[in-house]
């Protein structure tokens, strides 16, 4: 998470406003507070109430984890709980995620946290992870590292430059949204995996593509997959707020048939990684 130790609440609010590229006038209008008062808060001349902090961070689309940090910097208790995914309070969320994972068979699906660490997955993910180095499959499995590492999926990805560009763009967007140093370090690590074959601009999509697919070699065949991501939009818990479920779908009939065949072939696809 972003380090806020010893930093004034006004400084943090100003940094979030600047990260969102908003002027004081724009933010004050959205939060229904005077520009003068917002200026006083940012410079430390006025201490914001917890209600004002929550209103400002809501308008700034600050993630729940960082909202708690801003509250702590202002001398207030965190407003959002953070339960472990295995906590009784999250039983309903876990059950819902598991239903999605199971119902998505025979296609791969996984649950990721803020740092792209796999929290759960269905058995069909094994089709994608087959052949990856054991150390990359040891919990907590990082899906981005697994995808782009030379000992992971990378050698099997036919359109590696294109897929790598997509993943790095997603990661960079989250770095900018959260300011999280762990994500920034992950981005730097993944950039270091690049070889000469992926330094050129990513190739354009094929003429018949309507999505950017993951083209994954599977023996003599090639699986063509695209993904749809979903999150809990009404999350009031930090852990739940950071969960994303990513479901892969076949981009063509051959891939759909191949995945269905693997699902009914005993031992054809090892179970996907899970952190729990």
UniProtKB/TrEMBL annotation:
PROSITE patterns per record: HTH_CROC1
Residues covered by the HTH cro/C1-type domain: 13-67
InterPro entries: Cro/C1-type_HTH, Lambda_DNA-bd_dom_sf, MLTR_LBD
GO molecular function, one term: DNA binding
Name of the protein: Transcriptional regulator, contains XRE-family HTH domain
Organism the protein comes from: Jatrophihabitans endophyticus
Gene3D superfamilies recorded: 3.30.450.180, lambda repressor-like DNA-binding domains
CDD domains, A to Z: HTH_XRE
Pfam families the UniProt entry points to: HTH_3, MLTR_LBD
